[in-house]
């Protein structure tokens, strides 16, 4: 439960001198050692509360009983094949989640390791979709201090002694180490991708210590941001009257999390590198034929810093050198024998043994003097292999090669380049941090929510899959595809064992009237050539990688293991578009190819128990798969997502936003056939021909437990926005006929939407007759959000938009614990939370951020920041639930979470987008396609009609292309 103080007035900032003495901050104020004024902070002696997971009500359990039985059977079946189900609510982690997370290590897409705010290394995600949450307690930094000729000594692990797991080891293990740090005078400061730990007189009262953690997450830098490495810079300030010999120690277990260190076959190897970089390589043999992993731990030797290593020690008394022996050597000498560098690789470990390594860096610090010691960690797993499919090389291998030993080069370059990394990070962050118009909490929460792009199970490959002779099994040997230029009937998917085909038609059935159909319902040969040209025959492996950024995947969440879940990417993608736009375009190209694909393999949908095909042509996939991404899409199998009403409009809106923001005409031309296909596919859901799609009486959208009947505010608004975006994009690409078709549908659909749903102050949840049809949905203006974010004219009158947003603010936000929790998804007009289902009564963190962005775009700054601050207070503040660096998808009003470490909260970057839209959108002409008629060879109209402007046809630069462009 939340403490009562959570919902009272709260200070607007966290000044660092409330956590660290001003005198200490002044002593550390050089070379980046002092934490910034704007940072998330926590004392190291803070208690890491156990988190409370949500539970369904009795009524919800009854309604979901059949689904639960089918899901349980499916999970068991997948387990029998040695696979994990994408959604498994029945299996819990060995360690219960706690409020202990901190800034993760490394760049994007090469595996990740998180580091808790108290210093423990945890949440290992080196193998795709496999997350080991428990900390490995032997992985630690420690310190040894000797003064006054050795008469005054201090030694301690640099982590509080009340960590879980220490007591599990015997006397020869880490329980024999000195866990003397109370943490009372030590603090953690986080501003992703950096973190500072300040030890203010612990364990030596006369020594001030700053540990600065730096990872290479640098926007628009597609090289450094892919590197699996981090640097730890220790700054030591001696305030005593005697010189001090200070030895810092990094210990590391040859493990990738869990119990992998006991599997055997691992070895360690010391090395002496260039520029004084020395350390140990830890070669890890993974289980289940996964690619091997090599870690490198190192420190940089300078004129004042001496580096030594202990390549191997163990945690049990059977080890040749035990953890207790190692610790005793450091207490006595403060360093290891330099001859250890000559020992060569160790003998591979036996099953059940734990192989560890240590690197020590020692320096003398004069009275009132300062010293800097730098350590680095890197890990190299060049090849990533998915469980059922292809193997790929990771992105960083483009620059470091495919040897596991590249960890040595990575750790060297990290120690040489980290100062430059920091300069680039500060250039990016400073304008936002110095903006006095922004709340303090918003500034550091904005950056810290980006943790997910590292810790969210990201995979970043160098492009296409490996050739058949380079991987254990070929991803293409068992798949075949057919590229067609004619009718669906000309394809022969039955001849393919897996029935995957690329088709140029949009849908098998539409309900559009004859006068609404374009001149041709199929793409011309020229149009299809834009999709097919220069690509392989496997439809889902098609990828235009002209920008050479490879291919990118990130999980929906660590509990929902599906790659690039698209209905959630709709919210999260603002972060990628703002910071790594080439990655965002790469993901959209993947989905554009997928729209035109069909996979006829049968799948059982668990909600109803019915069967259907895995991927329908014209439908945007829910995700890019799990065990075989890009080749076996739609890992999600609760509902048949080909019948969802939000995926296709979301695809159109995201593509248009990316097209408008980047001005990339080649991207627009390449994905346009998929945009048309996605729009035409939706015709089948307009059952009465009024231009507006209807929902089908089941949860057919991202709220997949919240049933919708008839016209809905959420999907209907998305559809109106998609019509406007498609019309505008069609106009800009020269497809005038399709622009006119979308415009006509919009003009027909908009009055229907408003007449069926507008009730005078907001849009009803849906047009049905259920108990929640008049509910106030927080996300009812999702389409208007994208419309405003892309510079398009508003979908509705400004008075209606502001009225609906004000209603959401007053009811969904302020009526839930005084506005200190975010926006609840559903609220009855009588002020009671809509409890018709699990999701209607939840507060979705990412949706709250997106609603706040919509408010900002409508000039409602106070309401926007108040709503979003509720997520900060409940999730990130000291008085909250403890969800920092693991922001969940949802929580209930009593703080029970669902799905930690989730993609959607990246939507806070939609707020920043609203505050600082890109120049391309600011400078774009405000073309209202819905109020204008454009001349078209298919729809001749008078050019001087009211509201119209003569369109000057430009000379085409695309040769025989069917498109004209704006160049």
UniProtKB/TrEMBL annotation:
- This protein is called Non-lysosomal glucosylceramidase
The UniProt family comment states: Belongs to the non-lysosomal glucosylceramidase family.
Q: Which UniProt keywords apply?
A: Glycosidase, Hydrolase, Lipid metabolism, Membrane
The entry's function note states: Non-lysosomal glucosylceramidase that catalyzes the hydrolysis of glucosylceramide (GlcCer) to free glucose and ceramide.
Concerning Pfam families, the annotation shows: DUF608, Glyco_hydr_116N
Q: What class of enzyme is it?
A: hydrolase
EC number of the protein: 3.2.1.45
Q: Does the keyword Calcium apply?
A: no
Task: List all Polar residues biased stretches.
Answer: 473-505
Q: Which SUPFAM superfamilies match?
A: Six-hairpin glycosidases (SSF48208)
Disordered: region residues: 469-521
Task: Provide the Glycosyl-hydrolase family 116 N-terminal domain boundaries.
Answer: 102-421
Q: An example Gene Ontology cellular component term from the record?
A: membrane
- Give start and end of each Glycosyl-hydrolase family 116 catalytic region domain: 550-911
For this chain's UniProt record, which GO biological process terms are given? carbohydrate metabolic process; glucosylceramide catabolic process
Q: Which domain of life is it from?
A: Eukaryota
What one GO molecular function would you report for this record?
Answer: glucosylceramidase activity
Catalyzed reaction equations: a beta-D-glucosyl-(1<->1')-N-acylsphing-4-enine + H2O = an N-acylsphing-4-enine + D-glucose
Query: Is Lipid metabolism included in the keywords of this UniProt record?
Result: yes
